[in-house]
Amino acid sequence: MKKDPLQINAEYTKIKRNVGESVQDYCIRFDAVYNAIPDDLKPTRKSALLKFPDDFNPDMAYQLRGRDLATLEEMQKIAVSVEANLNDKRARMKAEKRVTIKEEASTSDQTLHKVEKMVEKLTLDKPELQI
Fold first, then answer.
1. How far from the centroid of its chain's Cα atoms is residue 82's Cα?
2. Through-space distance between the first and last CA atoms of the chain, rounded to whole angstroms
3. How would DSSP label each residue in the chain?
4. Where are the domains positioned within the chain?
5. Rounded to the nearest 10 degrees, what angle do helices 23-36 and 5-14 cross at?
């Protein structure tokens, strides 16, 4: 069943990146909707280039717009690359956080062990302190 051209255009106007949707999946969906618009109703490629970053966080949208890219395809490649870099950075930060927490825990364990040894020594030296 063929969609109504005005409905496709309305879908393009309202297109948003879904929560949890990867940039690559959004690019595919964005292109599918844009390319389904009949040529006589289709916004220009420049217009699509301006619309595409609208649903990203402000920093990413600013970076995409600030690069003065000539084509939507270039912008989409960069957006996918930026997302991959951000995911790598998040994973590294998460790993570093786990290492820091483990180090803090082992330091606490060592301190607790020292206190236990001191209490044990005190109770051995002074039996009257035993509970």
1. 9
2. 85
3. -PPPHHHHHHHHHH--PPTT--HHHHHHHHHHHHHHS-TTTPPPHHHHHHHGGGGS-HHHHHHHHHT--S-HHHHHHHHHHHHHHHHHHHHHHHHHHHHHHHHHHHHHHHHHHHHHHHHHHHHHH-GGG--
4. 5-102
5. 150
Q: Which whole-number Å values give the CA distances from 111 to 63, 114, 115, in the listed order?
A: 48, 5, 6
Q: At what angle do helices 72-125 and 58-66 cross, to 10 degrees?
A: 140
- The pLDDT profile of the chain, 131 residues, written as one tens digit per residue, is 568 888 998 899 999 888 889 999 999 999 999 999 999 889 999 999 989 988 888 878 888 888 888 899 999 999 998 888 888 888 888 888 776 666 655 666 667 667 777 767 666 665 555 55
User: Could you tell me which of 100, 58, 56 has the C-alpha nearest to residue 79?
Assistant: 56
Question: Residue 15's closest CA among 46, 70, 53, 60?
Answer: 53
41 neighbors 9 (Cβ within 8 angstroms):
yes
